[in-house]
Amino acid sequence: MRERFKNGYVKLGVTLFAAGAALIVVSEMVTHFDGLREDIDRVNTILSPFIFGLVMAYLLCPVYNAVVRRLYKLTCGRWKTKKGALKFCRVVATIISLVVLIGVVGGLFAMVLPETIRSIIGLVQVMPDRLNDLINWAETTFTAEKYPEAAEAFESLVAKTRDNFVEWTQTEFLPKLGIYMTQISQGVIVTLKTVLNILIGIIICVYFLNSKELFKAQTKKIISATMNKERSDAVFEFAYFTNKTFGGFINGKLIDSAIIGVLCFILMSVLNLPYTILVSTIIGVTNIIPFFGPFIGAIPSAIIICLESPLQAIYFLIMVLVLQQFDGNILGPKILGGTTGLASFWVMFAIIVGGGLFGFLGMVLGVPVFAVVYYYFRKFINRRLAKKNLPTSTIEYEDFNKYDINRKDVL
Q1: Rounded to two decimals, what is the model's pTM?
Q2: The predicted structure's pLDDT at residue 99
Q3: What is the DSSP letter of 339?
Protein backbone atom coordinates (compact mmCIF):
# COMPACT_ATOMS: atom_id res chain seq x y z
CA MET A 1 0.00 0.00 0.00
CA ARG A 2 2.80 2.39 0.89
CA GLU A 3 4.60 1.57 -2.36
CA ARG A 4 1.50 2.62 -4.32
CA PHE A 5 1.45 5.99 -2.62
CA LYS A 6 5.07 6.53 -3.60
CA ASN A 7 3.88 6.59 -7.23
CA GLY A 8 3.65 10.19 -8.48
CA TYR A 9 0.38 9.62 -10.35
CA VAL A 10 -1.29 8.13 -7.27
CA LYS A 11 -0.17 11.10 -5.17
CA LEU A 12 -1.49 13.50 -7.79
CA GLY A 13 -4.81 11.66 -7.94
CA VAL A 14 -5.24 11.68 -4.16
CA THR A 15 -4.32 15.38 -4.02
CA LEU A 16 -6.82 16.28 -6.77
CA PHE A 17 -9.53 14.22 -5.09
CA ALA A 18 -8.91 15.88 -1.71
CA ALA A 19 -8.87 19.36 -3.31
CA GLY A 20 -12.11 18.63 -5.19
CA ALA A 21 -13.81 17.33 -2.06
CA ALA A 22 -12.68 20.41 -0.12
CA LEU A 23 -14.03 22.71 -2.88
CA ILE A 24 -17.38 20.90 -2.82
CA VAL A 25 -17.61 21.23 0.96
CA VAL A 26 -16.72 24.94 0.84
CA SER A 27 -19.21 25.52 -1.99
CA GLU A 28 -21.99 23.82 -0.06
CA MET A 29 -21.14 25.84 3.05
CA VAL A 30 -21.27 29.12 1.10
CA THR A 31 -24.47 28.18 -0.76
CA HIS A 32 -26.29 27.14 2.40
CA PHE A 33 -24.62 29.68 4.69
CA ASP A 34 -27.85 30.82 6.37
CA GLY A 35 -28.89 27.25 7.10
CA LEU A 36 -25.40 26.44 8.33
CA ARG A 37 -25.45 29.45 10.65
CA GLU A 38 -28.82 28.34 12.05
CA ASP A 39 -27.42 24.86 12.64
CA ILE A 40 -24.37 26.33 14.39
CA ASP A 41 -26.61 28.52 16.57
CA ARG A 42 -28.73 25.49 17.43
CA VAL A 43 -25.66 23.49 18.39
CA ASN A 44 -24.37 26.41 20.50
CA THR A 45 -27.73 26.60 22.26
CA ILE A 46 -27.66 22.89 23.04
CA LEU A 47 -24.05 23.00 24.23
CA SER A 48 -24.36 26.26 26.18
CA PRO A 49 -24.68 24.51 29.60
CA PHE A 50 -21.46 22.62 28.87
CA ILE A 51 -19.75 25.83 27.73
CA PHE A 52 -20.83 27.64 30.93
CA GLY A 53 -19.70 24.68 33.03
CA LEU A 54 -16.30 24.36 31.37
CA VAL A 55 -15.63 28.11 31.60
CA MET A 56 -16.56 28.17 35.29
CA ALA A 57 -14.46 25.07 35.97
CA TYR A 58 -11.48 26.54 34.12
CA LEU A 59 -11.65 29.74 36.17
CA LEU A 60 -12.12 27.83 39.43
CA CYS A 61 -9.30 25.34 38.78
CA PRO A 62 -6.63 27.40 40.62
CA VAL A 63 -8.85 27.59 43.74
CA TYR A 64 -9.79 23.90 43.56
CA ASN A 65 -6.21 22.72 43.00
CA ALA A 66 -4.82 24.91 45.78
CA VAL A 67 -7.37 23.60 48.32
CA VAL A 68 -6.79 19.95 47.37
CA ARG A 69 -3.00 20.36 47.46
CA ARG A 70 -2.85 22.06 50.86
CA LEU A 71 -5.62 20.06 52.54
CA TYR A 72 -4.18 16.74 51.40
CA LYS A 73 -0.86 17.54 53.08
CA LEU A 74 -2.72 18.13 56.34
CA THR A 75 -5.09 15.14 56.24
CA CYS A 76 -3.31 12.34 54.36
CA GLY A 77 -1.82 10.96 57.59
CA ARG A 78 -5.12 11.03 59.48
CA TRP A 79 -7.11 8.78 57.16
CA LYS A 80 -6.88 5.03 56.86
CA THR A 81 -6.13 5.24 53.16
CA LYS A 82 -4.70 8.02 51.04
CA LYS A 83 -7.50 7.44 48.54
CA GLY A 84 -10.06 8.31 51.20
CA ALA A 85 -8.11 11.43 52.14
CA LEU A 86 -8.05 12.50 48.48
CA LYS A 87 -11.83 12.02 48.16
CA PHE A 88 -12.39 14.12 51.29
CA CYS A 89 -10.11 16.85 49.94
CA ARG A 90 -11.97 16.85 46.61
CA VAL A 91 -15.32 17.27 48.35
CA VAL A 92 -14.06 20.14 50.49
CA ALA A 93 -12.35 21.77 47.50
CA THR A 94 -15.57 21.52 45.46
CA ILE A 95 -17.60 23.16 48.23
CA ILE A 96 -15.05 25.95 48.68
CA SER A 97 -14.87 26.55 44.91
CA LEU A 98 -18.66 26.86 44.68
CA VAL A 99 -18.70 29.18 47.69
CA VAL A 100 -16.08 31.36 45.98
CA LEU A 101 -18.10 31.38 42.76
CA ILE A 102 -21.39 32.20 44.45
CA GLY A 103 -19.72 34.71 46.76
CA VAL A 104 -18.02 36.61 43.93
CA VAL A 105 -21.05 36.66 41.64
CA GLY A 106 -23.54 37.30 44.44
CA GLY A 107 -21.33 39.96 46.00
CA LEU A 108 -21.01 41.79 42.69
CA PHE A 109 -24.76 41.72 42.14
CA ALA A 110 -25.45 42.78 45.71
CA MET A 111 -23.06 45.73 45.46
CA VAL A 112 -23.55 46.75 41.87
CA LEU A 113 -27.21 46.07 41.02
CA PRO A 114 -28.91 48.37 43.61
CA GLU A 115 -26.45 51.19 42.93
CA THR A 116 -26.81 50.69 39.17
CA ILE A 117 -30.60 50.94 39.44
CA ARG A 118 -30.32 54.07 41.58
CA SER A 119 -27.82 55.57 39.13
CA ILE A 120 -30.05 54.85 36.13
CA ILE A 121 -33.07 56.35 37.92
CA GLY A 122 -30.98 59.37 38.84
CA LEU A 123 -29.85 59.76 35.23
CA VAL A 124 -33.43 59.57 34.01
CA GLN A 125 -34.46 62.21 36.54
CA VAL A 126 -31.52 64.48 35.77
CA MET A 127 -31.66 64.15 31.97
CA PRO A 128 -34.70 66.44 31.35
CA ASP A 129 -33.28 69.18 33.57
CA ARG A 130 -29.91 68.97 31.84
CA LEU A 131 -31.54 69.15 28.41
CA ASN A 132 -33.60 72.15 29.52
CA ASP A 133 -30.45 73.81 30.86
CA LEU A 134 -28.73 73.16 27.53
CA ILE A 135 -31.66 74.59 25.59
CA ASN A 136 -31.86 77.65 27.85
CA TRP A 137 -28.12 78.20 27.57
CA ALA A 138 -28.26 77.93 23.79
CA GLU A 139 -31.26 80.29 23.60
CA THR A 140 -29.58 82.91 25.79
CA THR A 141 -26.19 82.56 24.11
CA PHE A 142 -27.18 82.30 20.48
CA THR A 143 -29.79 85.07 20.53
CA ALA A 144 -31.31 86.34 17.32
CA GLU A 145 -29.69 89.74 17.88
CA LYS A 146 -26.14 88.38 18.31
CA TYR A 147 -26.18 85.30 16.10
CA PRO A 148 -29.30 85.30 13.93
CA GLU A 149 -28.16 82.42 11.70
CA ALA A 150 -27.14 80.22 14.64
CA ALA A 151 -30.39 80.96 16.50
CA GLU A 152 -32.44 80.10 13.45
CA ALA A 153 -30.48 76.87 12.88
CA PHE A 154 -30.88 75.86 16.54
CA GLU A 155 -34.64 76.51 16.53
CA SER A 156 -34.95 74.56 13.29
CA LEU A 157 -33.00 71.64 14.79
CA VAL A 158 -35.17 71.57 17.92
CA ALA A 159 -38.38 71.74 15.87
CA LYS A 160 -37.19 69.02 13.48
CA THR A 161 -36.15 66.76 16.36
CA ARG A 162 -39.53 67.21 18.05
CA ASP A 163 -41.42 66.51 14.81
CA ASN A 164 -39.31 63.43 14.08
CA PHE A 165 -39.95 62.10 17.58
CA VAL A 166 -43.72 62.60 17.26
CA GLU A 167 -43.71 61.01 13.82
CA TRP A 168 -41.64 58.04 15.04
CA THR A 169 -44.02 57.55 17.97
CA GLN A 170 -47.10 57.55 15.71
CA THR A 171 -45.72 55.57 12.77
CA GLU A 172 -43.18 53.22 14.34
CA PHE A 173 -43.54 52.78 18.08
CA LEU A 174 -47.33 52.55 18.57
CA PRO A 175 -48.07 50.29 15.55
CA LYS A 176 -45.25 47.95 16.55
CA LEU A 177 -46.01 47.96 20.26
CA GLY A 178 -47.29 44.39 20.05
CA ILE A 179 -44.07 43.28 18.37
CA TYR A 180 -42.05 44.96 21.09
CA MET A 181 -44.07 43.19 23.79
CA THR A 182 -43.47 39.87 22.01
CA GLN A 183 -39.75 40.60 21.90
CA ILE A 184 -39.78 41.47 25.59
CA SER A 185 -41.56 38.18 26.34
CA GLN A 186 -39.01 36.31 24.25
CA GLY A 187 -36.24 38.13 26.11
CA VAL A 188 -37.71 36.99 29.44
CA ILE A 189 -37.86 33.41 28.15
CA VAL A 190 -34.24 33.61 26.93
CA THR A 191 -33.22 34.99 30.33
CA LEU A 192 -34.93 32.11 32.13
CA LYS A 193 -33.27 29.62 29.77
CA THR A 194 -29.90 31.26 30.42
CA VAL A 195 -30.42 31.01 34.19
CA LEU A 196 -31.36 27.32 33.77
CA ASN A 197 -28.28 26.73 31.60
CA ILE A 198 -26.09 28.37 34.24
CA LEU A 199 -27.57 26.13 36.96
CA ILE A 200 -26.92 23.06 34.80
CA GLY A 201 -23.48 24.52 34.04
CA ILE A 202 -22.70 24.61 37.77
CA ILE A 203 -23.44 20.86 37.96
CA ILE A 204 -21.22 20.26 34.91
CA CYS A 205 -18.55 22.44 36.53
CA VAL A 206 -18.56 20.19 39.61
CA TYR A 207 -18.25 17.06 37.47
CA PHE A 208 -15.41 18.55 35.45
CA LEU A 209 -13.47 19.76 38.50
CA ASN A 210 -13.57 16.28 40.03
CA SER A 211 -12.97 14.40 36.77
CA LYS A 212 -10.46 16.59 34.95
CA GLU A 213 -7.58 14.21 35.71
CA LEU A 214 -9.62 11.32 34.26
CA PHE A 215 -10.49 13.32 31.12
CA LYS A 216 -6.85 14.33 30.74
CA ALA A 217 -5.69 10.72 31.12
CA GLN A 218 -8.25 9.49 28.56
CA THR A 219 -7.18 12.16 26.09
CA LYS A 220 -3.49 11.30 26.54
CA LYS A 221 -4.35 7.63 26.10
CA ILE A 222 -6.11 8.27 22.77
CA ILE A 223 -3.33 10.53 21.47
CA SER A 224 -0.61 8.08 22.49
CA ALA A 225 -2.47 5.22 20.79
CA THR A 226 -3.07 7.03 17.50
CA MET A 227 0.22 8.94 17.08
CA ASN A 228 3.90 8.16 17.25
CA LYS A 229 5.91 9.41 20.23
CA GLU A 230 7.31 12.47 18.48
CA ARG A 231 3.88 13.75 17.37
CA SER A 232 2.19 12.89 20.66
CA ASP A 233 4.89 14.77 22.60
CA ALA A 234 4.36 17.77 20.28
CA VAL A 235 0.61 17.67 20.97
CA PHE A 236 1.19 17.45 24.74
CA GLU A 237 3.65 20.35 24.58
CA PHE A 238 1.14 22.39 22.57
CA ALA A 239 -1.63 21.69 25.10
CA TYR A 240 0.64 22.59 28.02
CA PHE A 241 1.79 25.84 26.43
CA THR A 242 -1.76 26.83 25.39
CA ASN A 243 -3.12 26.15 28.88
CA LYS A 244 -0.24 28.08 30.46
CA THR A 245 -0.77 31.07 28.14
CA PHE A 246 -4.55 31.20 28.47
CA GLY A 247 -4.59 30.46 32.19
CA GLY A 248 -1.88 32.99 33.02
CA PHE A 249 -3.44 35.71 30.86
CA ILE A 250 -7.10 35.24 31.87
CA ASN A 251 -6.50 34.77 35.60
CA GLY A 252 -3.98 37.60 35.64
CA LYS A 253 -6.34 39.92 33.75
CA LEU A 254 -9.22 39.14 36.11
CA ILE A 255 -7.07 39.92 39.16
CA ASP A 256 -5.68 43.06 37.51
CA SER A 257 -9.17 44.29 36.55
CA ALA A 258 -10.55 43.62 40.03
CA ILE A 259 -7.72 45.67 41.58
CA ILE A 260 -8.27 48.51 39.08
CA GLY A 261 -12.01 48.51 39.83
CA VAL A 262 -11.35 48.74 43.58
CA LEU A 263 -8.76 51.50 43.10
CA CYS A 264 -11.20 53.40 40.88
CA PHE A 265 -13.86 53.12 43.60
CA ILE A 266 -11.46 54.40 46.27
CA LEU A 267 -10.22 57.33 44.16
CA MET A 268 -13.74 58.34 43.12
CA SER A 269 -14.85 58.23 46.76
CA VAL A 270 -11.90 60.44 47.77
CA LEU A 271 -12.65 62.91 44.95
CA ASN A 272 -16.37 62.77 45.81
CA LEU A 273 -17.36 61.93 42.22
CA PRO A 274 -20.92 60.74 41.45
CA TYR A 275 -22.05 57.24 40.40
CA THR A 276 -19.08 55.67 42.18
CA ILE A 277 -20.08 51.99 42.11
CA LEU A 278 -21.58 52.10 38.60
CA VAL A 279 -18.55 53.79 37.05
CA SER A 280 -16.05 51.63 38.99
CA THR A 281 -17.82 48.52 37.71
CA ILE A 282 -17.66 49.79 34.12
CA ILE A 283 -13.94 50.59 34.48
CA GLY A 284 -13.19 47.21 36.08
CA VAL A 285 -15.11 45.17 33.48
CA THR A 286 -13.77 46.99 30.43
CA ASN A 287 -10.22 46.80 31.82
CA ILE A 288 -10.34 43.08 30.99
CA ILE A 289 -9.83 44.18 27.37
CA PRO A 290 -6.10 44.86 26.95
CA PHE A 291 -4.84 48.18 25.62
CA PHE A 292 -8.22 49.71 24.65
CA GLY A 293 -10.16 48.68 27.78
CA PRO A 294 -9.55 51.79 29.93
CA PHE A 295 -10.56 54.12 27.09
CA ILE A 296 -13.67 52.07 26.22
CA GLY A 297 -14.82 52.31 29.84
CA ALA A 298 -13.78 55.92 30.38
CA ILE A 299 -15.79 57.48 27.53
CA PRO A 300 -19.33 56.39 28.59
CA SER A 301 -18.42 56.91 32.25
CA ALA A 302 -17.26 60.47 31.56
CA ILE A 303 -20.51 61.18 29.68
CA ILE A 304 -22.56 59.89 32.64
CA ILE A 305 -20.60 62.05 35.10
CA CYS A 306 -20.76 65.04 32.74
CA LEU A 307 -24.56 65.02 33.06
CA GLU A 308 -24.05 65.67 36.75
CA SER A 309 -21.08 68.05 36.50
CA PRO A 310 -18.78 68.77 33.54
CA LEU A 311 -15.96 69.80 35.90
CA GLN A 312 -16.17 66.49 37.75
CA ALA A 313 -16.04 64.70 34.40
CA ILE A 314 -12.70 66.40 33.71
CA TYR A 315 -11.42 65.30 37.13
CA PHE A 316 -12.57 61.77 36.34
CA LEU A 317 -10.75 61.69 32.98
CA ILE A 318 -7.53 62.86 34.64
CA MET A 319 -7.98 60.19 37.33
CA VAL A 320 -8.53 57.45 34.70
CA LEU A 321 -5.43 58.60 32.79
CA VAL A 322 -3.31 58.32 35.94
CA LEU A 323 -4.90 54.95 36.79
CA GLN A 324 -4.25 53.64 33.29
CA GLN A 325 -0.59 54.66 33.46
CA PHE A 326 -0.26 52.91 36.81
CA ASP A 327 -1.90 49.77 35.42
CA GLY A 328 0.05 49.73 32.16
CA ASN A 329 3.50 50.42 33.62
CA ILE A 330 3.42 48.95 37.15
CA LEU A 331 0.44 46.77 38.09
CA GLY A 332 -0.14 44.98 34.77
CA PRO A 333 3.48 43.88 34.19
CA LYS A 334 3.74 42.75 37.84
CA ILE A 335 0.66 40.50 37.58
CA LEU A 336 0.78 39.35 33.97
CA GLY A 337 4.55 39.27 33.56
CA GLY A 338 5.51 37.72 30.21
CA THR A 339 2.48 35.44 29.82
CA THR A 340 1.96 36.35 26.15
CA GLY A 341 5.40 37.41 24.96
CA LEU A 342 3.84 39.77 22.41
CA ALA A 343 5.00 43.25 21.52
CA SER A 344 2.53 46.13 21.93
CA PHE A 345 1.88 46.30 18.18
CA TRP A 346 0.81 42.64 18.00
CA VAL A 347 -1.36 43.05 21.12
CA MET A 348 -3.19 45.90 19.39
CA PHE A 349 -3.43 43.87 16.17
CA ALA A 350 -4.90 40.86 18.01
CA ILE A 351 -7.47 43.01 19.82
CA ILE A 352 -8.65 44.79 16.66
CA VAL A 353 -8.90 41.61 14.58
CA GLY A 354 -10.43 39.56 17.39
CA GLY A 355 -12.94 42.28 18.22
CA GLY A 356 -13.87 42.73 14.57
CA LEU A 357 -14.52 39.00 14.11
CA PHE A 358 -15.96 37.94 17.46
CA GLY A 359 -16.92 41.11 19.36
CA PHE A 360 -16.17 41.51 23.06
CA LEU A 361 -15.09 37.88 23.51
CA GLY A 362 -12.68 38.25 20.60
CA MET A 363 -11.16 41.37 22.14
CA VAL A 364 -10.54 39.50 25.40
CA LEU A 365 -9.30 36.17 23.99
CA GLY A 366 -7.65 37.53 20.84
CA VAL A 367 -4.37 38.22 22.65
CA PRO A 368 -3.75 34.71 24.10
CA VAL A 369 -4.91 33.06 20.84
CA PHE A 370 -2.54 35.20 18.79
CA ALA A 371 0.22 34.60 21.36
CA VAL A 372 -0.04 30.83 20.78
CA VAL A 373 -0.07 31.27 16.98
CA TYR A 374 2.87 33.71 17.17
CA TYR A 375 4.89 31.37 19.39
CA TYR A 376 4.57 28.37 17.07
CA PHE A 377 5.09 30.42 13.92
CA ARG A 378 8.29 31.84 15.42
CA LYS A 379 9.33 28.33 16.44
CA PHE A 380 8.75 27.07 12.88
CA ILE A 381 10.75 29.93 11.34
CA ASN A 382 13.63 29.47 13.78
CA ARG A 383 13.74 25.75 13.03
CA ARG A 384 13.92 26.40 9.29
CA LEU A 385 16.68 28.98 9.81
CA ALA A 386 18.65 26.57 12.00
CA LYS A 387 18.51 23.93 9.26
CA LYS A 388 20.10 26.45 6.90
CA ASN A 389 22.75 27.37 9.51
CA LEU A 390 21.41 30.94 9.67
CA PRO A 391 21.10 33.02 12.86
CA THR A 392 17.73 32.77 14.60
CA SER A 393 17.92 36.02 16.57
CA THR A 394 15.84 38.83 15.06
CA ILE A 395 18.52 41.34 16.07
CA GLU A 396 20.85 39.81 13.50
CA TYR A 397 18.50 40.89 10.70
CA GLU A 398 18.01 44.51 11.80
CA ASP A 399 19.53 47.08 9.44
CA PHE A 400 20.46 50.67 10.33
CA ASN A 401 22.47 51.47 7.19
CA LYS A 402 19.85 53.94 5.96
CA TYR A 403 20.67 56.06 9.01
CA ASP A 404 24.44 55.70 8.44
CA ILE A 405 24.61 53.91 11.78
CA ASN A 406 26.54 50.75 12.57
CA ARG A 407 24.14 48.17 13.99
CA LYS A 408 26.64 46.99 16.59
CA ASP A 409 26.85 50.50 18.06
CA VAL A 410 23.17 50.67 19.00
CA LEU A 411 22.47 47.07 20.06
Answers
A1: 0.67
A2: 92
A3: S
